[in-house]
C-alpha cells in the first residue's frame, strides 16, 4: 500500500497546518473564487459587447481576464475540496495537470503584460505610427504568441519532470509545483535544472526586462512633455503598472518560498505566501482596470 501511494500519489503536507481554520478558509476562498469569476466575466462581456472598446489595449485586458478565469478554474476547485477533506492525496496525472495549468497561467500573465507594455510604448513613444503598427493582424499575432510560447515551453519542462523516478511523495505546499516534485527525485536532475533555468529566462526574465525597458522609455518621453500629456499617459499606463507590480510581488513570494525551508517559516505565513501569485492578480486586475480606466468604468456602470 505504501509503495502504491508513493508511486501514484502525492501528499500535500501544509493543509495540516491550517487546522480548525479550514472552514473559515473555505468560506473566504469560495467567496473569493466567485468574486474572481464574476468580475473577470464582467470585464470580458463589457469589452466584447462595446464596439468602442474594440481597441488593442482593451483586447489585451480581456486576454488578462480570460487567463485569470483559466488559472482560477484550474486552482480553486481542487483547493476548496482539499480544505474540507481529511486526506490530501493527489494522483500523479492530476498533479502534473495542476502544475501545467497554474504555471502556464502564471507565464501567460507575464507575456500578456509584455504585449500590453509594447502597446503602451507604441502609443506614447510613436503615436503617429500607432494605427499602422497595432493593426488587428498584429494584435492577433501578439496574443497568439503570448499563449503559445508558455504553453509549449511548460509542456517540454513537464515531460522531463514526469519521467523522473521519485523517492518520496510529500509536497510541502497546498498545490503541486514543479520544483517541489523535482526535489523528490532519486536521480540527478541537472537536465531538469538547465531546462527550468531556460524556461525561467524566456518566460519570466525576458518579459520582465522588456516591460521595465518600455516603461523607462515612456518615463523619458513624459519627462520632456507637458503636464497635460503626462496626465493622459498616467491615466492609460497606471493600471498596467499596478498590475505589473502586483504580479511581480506575487511571483517573487512564490519563488522565494519554493527556495526556502518551509519548516522554519510560520505555517500560516507560508500558506498565504504560497497562494499569493495564483489568487491575488486574478482578483485585483478587474478592479484595477474597471476603476482606473474611464471607458470601462462608464460601460460597467451603464450595464448595472
Task: Write up this protein.
This protein has a three-stranded mixed β-sheet with strand order 2-1-3. 78% of the residues lie in helices and 3% in strands. The protein is an all-alpha fold and 304 residues long. The chain has helices at 2-8, 22-49, 56-84, 92-125, 130-133, 136-162, 178-182, 190-223, 227-258, 267-292, 294-303, and strands spanning 9-12, 89-91, 170-171. It is globular, with a radius of gyration of 21 Å.
List the helices and strands and how they pair.
Blueprint: H1 2-8, E1 9-12, H2 22-49, H3 56-84, E2 89-91, H4 92-125, H5 130-133, H6 136-162, E3 170-171, H7 178-182, H8 190-223, H9 227-258, H10 267-292, H11 294-303
Parallel strand pairs: 1-3
Antiparallel strand pairs: 1-2
Helix pairs in contact: 2-3, 2-10, 2-11, 3-4, 3-10, 4-6, 4-8, 4-9, 6-8, 9-10, 10-11
Terminal residue distance: 56 Å
Number of strands: 3
What form results from the Cα inertia axes?
A: globular
Average pLDDT reading: 83
Low-confidence segments, ≥5 residues, pLDDT <50? 1-5
Strand content: under 5%
Count of discrete alpha- or pi-helical segments spanning 4 or more residues: 11
The largest pleated sheet is described as:
3 strands, mixed
Rg over CA atoms, rounded to whole Å, is 21 Å
Question: What keywords describe this structure?
Answer:
304 residues; 3 strands; three-stranded mixed sheet
Write a short abstract of this structure.
The protein has 304 residues and is mainly α. It has helices at residues 2-8, 22-49, 56-84, 92-125, 130-133, 136-162, 178-182, 190-223, 227-258, 267-292, 294-303; strands spanning 9-12, 89-91, 170-171.
